[in-house]
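Fold this sequence, please.
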Amino acid sequence: MDSDVDFRFSPRPNRAHEIDWRPWGEPAFAEARKLGRPILLSLSAVWCHWCHVMDETSYSDPRVIAAVNEHFVPIRVDNDRHPDVNRRYNMGGWPTTAFLAASGDPITGATYMPPEQMLQALERVSEFFAANRTALLTLGATDHAQDADGEAALAHLGGVPRKGALSAPDFDGDPDVPGDIPAEIALQIVRAFDPVHGGLGSDPKFPQADVFAFGLAFAELRGGGEPLHATPHTSALVAPGRMHEVVRTTLQRMATGGLYDHVAGGFFRYATRRDWSVPHYEKMLEDNARLAGLYLEAAVLAHGGGVSGSGAGDGGAAHARLGVVTLYTDTAAGTIDYLLATLWRGGPPAFGGSQDADEHYYCLDDAGRAELPEPFVDPTVYVDWNALAARALLRAAPVLQRPELTERAVELLGFLWERSHRGAAMAHYLTTAGEPGSGAPLLVDQATMAAALLDAYEVTTERRWLEGAQALAGWAGRHLRAPDSRLHDRLAEPGASAGLLARPLPVLDENALMAEVLLRLEAYTGVAAWRDQAREILMAWATHYEESGVTAAAYGQALLRYLERPDHIVVVGSRGDDMARRLLGAALAAPWPLRTVQFLDPDDAADAERMAAAGFTRAAAAAAYVCRGATCQAPVTDPEELGRPL
């Protein structure tokens, strides 16, 4: 695994660089085995306030520096560049301070520790390691098999639980999903909902865009039927109208509260108080891309009569709905504008990963901020986060009627493909415009990039994007597939798979996103094998999703796409035909959740082949077909029948 050259310390004065940090990789673990020392693993992030504080305090304390250099092998890992390491070792937040055996097994750990506490921890771990040296050094000696004495030693210290591969599910092969899993996930969300301030739970409160994106889809797709009755795993009714309330209240409170930056636009990472009034001030590309997409989708559905602002009748409902749509579109537009104004790098044509927290700066008004330099923006280009941003831009273009956003998204995706497509897969990040991508191929990059390429295919109608998505999905299926059909989060690489990275780990939300990609591929191509692969992934998780609670929402959304077979809108016509383009624009902005859109030109050989296989014929005028599975409605020739634009 490539190293972080500067280890990305706090931008303020500190001495953390005096610790002899090693990059993550087998050489550091081999050194720990050779020297007979424990490993000190520091998980940090450039946007993390308390990571900076720890650099400036504990890691700048001469006593700590001396103790670490003398008795430990210190490894420094950047969370954003190595999310696979963070996933296996995070102790509950950032910074994480983890103490490991040379095998990579955790001994103990914590988050932020001030100097005196850090010194005590270093002393305790050193003493414990010396007393149990033989057992700890033999941990994982044979293919990471656990030594009984080593396990006992870790238990004696009260070591943290270690995360390994989950057991295979006991699935009987029935073609139907057991129970009503989307309803069960919806029930968990409703139970966690804060009816006063919106969001889930008390404080701190995170926006959790994926949870509410699932809520939107669930409320809309299930809204036409009866309330969902209790299944063997649920104990209450979950009505779609209730989910509408959960989503509506949350989106309104987040947009009008302190989580949203009302001066520069964009959302902060989370709120420290239940009412969203006091944010934690860093801004993340990932969060803002997801939230922009969420508000755009909510605006489209509210405009179509779905997630409305009031239950009032007639004119009252229409007026309330208009206000909600305006709030949603303004919030989405402000977030998009923030990304373009602050995180867009230009050279390279991509977004930086985050903007640093600066409470004083963000508490000023527009005039006050103008007198100060903006907080630091991390210039690193993360493939998955940039793909999320491209998806938000592509969704915003037809919804906000800003076609230039499509051009920006296409430029971004082209750059990512050119610089980060390494072999047959996407690398995780880029540090400069001229260098190829870095980092082991991760499932999250393949899934998110493939989803963005499919969005680009819908909007631009260019088959190269569809072919790129097929290539990434195919690579993931060949190289990351586990025996139980789930997908591992990363590709094992010699020298990089040290510690717990050598142990496969399937991750629910990443598997769910790839399953959605596969289902979309089946809709565009008609190839049933894509749907079969998606089904295998989804069924493999059917006995594991409950471990994730409300964060299983992405899995719930993938299951909705699988079970409900959302509308697939096919526009048939010449690419040079104005009416065909208008129909495409209307289809892209249509208020139908999880819909897919495809443009087929009879004069294009590949499109003509797809038309013939699907039973579409050339007509005198352009037409749109709304299909569900193999059944299509009568052709539509008026764009307004597909939904009026905002």
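Residues 348 and 433 are 5 Å apart (CA to CA). The domain at 440-564 is CATH 1.50.10.20 (Glycosyltransferase).
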